[in-house]
């Protein structure tokens, strides 16, 4: 009887040791990072780099689990999940946050942000911090500005070399006022379609075309169902790395610092990586039989849309637009 009791106690002790050993090595913080891109998308390149940096810096006290390809919902749903605190980090295009933070429609103003290095200096400086403040007022902490890229037009009907070439085309845009007005200015028909449904919409000819950076056109395979690409570079789109404010402020300060530092380092690394990949991906798109218009009439597009920012002056202060314009000009 005594021997059985000793054996039972030994088994219990071993189980306890195993439990506490496992607990000792468990992460103190588990983070879900979600995005809607493919495994080749800019979002995923950034997410993988961020995960590596965070887990290394924290000695795996923080573990990051990535949910790509819209597994946790489209970008609007993802932003809502972050706001509710059911997803810790969401990575999504700034324009798709405009429903929550109207000031972010500034990224839809055509030809406001020009030149990559100039854009980076503005977003990583005082103006980027100001935009972060708008997000914070709505309960979101933006850890950094990663890259989606300069947006270009694609379609299945004809090459777009000048603004009038877009007339009558159904072009998919994000669901925000500035994007819809941009297409109206070109004489095109703005067609809001969720990002996750865009490939099938192009394939089924629900819409004639769309507009996205080359990296997105490549990674989401839109070039498989489009005939023409025009390198209009009409707007620049950053990827926001948003977290729930209440959740973030409840973290140990050392963990907050690790997440912020990793996000900033990821921005630099992801931008460099995408620059390296763009020429290669553009050539793949060309070899797939897509006609690429490399020199559309940028001046004509810019002139036609130069006052378009006024249609959103009720939500995007004109003074902010002018400061961005000046800052970009000085940085170039």
Separation of termini? 86 Å
How many strand segments? 9
SSE class: alpha/beta
Largest sheet: 7 strands, mixed
Please state roughly what percent of the residues sit in beta strands, choosing from under 5%, 5-15%, 15-25%, 25-35%, 35-45% or over 45%.
Answer: 15-25%
Overall body shape: globular
Mean pLDDT: 93
C-alpha Rg (nearest Å): 23 Å
Helical stretch tally: 12
Which H/E pattern describes the elements?
HEHEHEHHEEHEHEHEHHEHH
The helicity comes to 40-55%
Low-confidence stretches: 7-24
Provide a descriptive summary of the structure in words.
- Helix content is 46%, strand content 20%.
- It is an alpha/beta fold.
- α2 runs antiparallel to α10.
- The longest helix is centred in the last third of the chain and has 35 residues, at 253-287.
- It starts with a helix and ends with a helix.
- The strands form 2 sheets. Strands 1, 2, 3, 4, 7, 8 and 9 form a 7-stranded mixed beta sheet that branches. A two-stranded parallel ribbon has the order 5-6.
- α6 links the parallel β5 (170-173) and β6 (189-192).
- It has helices at 2-25, 42-57, 75-84, 116-123, 126-136, 177-186, 198-203, 214-219, 245-249, 253-287, 298-304, 318-331; strands at 29-34, 62-67, 89-93, 140-155, 170-173, 189-192, 209-212, 228-244, 291-293.
């Amino acid at each position: 009887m005594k021997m059985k009791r000793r054996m039972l106690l030994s088994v219990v002790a071993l189980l306890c040791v195993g439990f506490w050993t496992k607990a000792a090595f468990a992460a103190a913080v588990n983070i879900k990072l979600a995005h809607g891109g493919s495994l080749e998308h800019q979002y995923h390149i950034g997410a993988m780099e961020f995960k590596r940096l965070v887990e290394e810096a924290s000695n795996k006290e923080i573990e990051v689990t990535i949910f790509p390809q819209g597994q946790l919902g489209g970008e609007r749903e993802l932003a809502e999940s972050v706001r509710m605190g059911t997803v810790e980090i969401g990575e999504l295009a700034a324009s798709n946050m405009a429903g929550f933070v109207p000031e972010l429609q500034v990224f839809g103003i055509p030809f406001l942000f020009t030149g990559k290095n100039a854009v980076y200096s503005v977003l990583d400086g005082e103006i980027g911090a100001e935009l972060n403040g708008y997000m914070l007022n709505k309960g979101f902490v933006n850890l950094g500005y990663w890259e989606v890229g300069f947006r270009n037009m694609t379609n299945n009907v004809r090459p777009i070399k000048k603004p009038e070439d877009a007339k009558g085309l159904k072009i998919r845009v994000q669901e925000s006022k500035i994007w819809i007005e941009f297409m109206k200015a070109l004489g095109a028909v703005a067609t809001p379609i969720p990002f996750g449904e865009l490939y099938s919409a192009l394939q089924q000819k629900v819409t004639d075309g769309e507009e996205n950076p080359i990296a997105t056109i490549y990674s989401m395979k839109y070039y498989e169902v489009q005939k023409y690409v025009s390198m209009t570079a009409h707007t620049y789109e950053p990827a926001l790395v948003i977290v729930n404010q209440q959740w973030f402020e409840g973290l140990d300060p050392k963990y907050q610092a690790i997440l912020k530092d990793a996000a900033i380092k990821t921005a630099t690394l992801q931008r460099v990586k995408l620059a390296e990949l763009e020429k290669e991906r553009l050539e793949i798109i060309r070899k797939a039989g897509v006609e690429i218009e490399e020199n559309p009439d940028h001046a004509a597009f810019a002139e036609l849309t130069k006052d378009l920012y006024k249609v959103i002056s009720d939500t995007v202060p004109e003074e902010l637009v002018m400061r961005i314009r000046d800052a970009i000009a000085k940085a170039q």
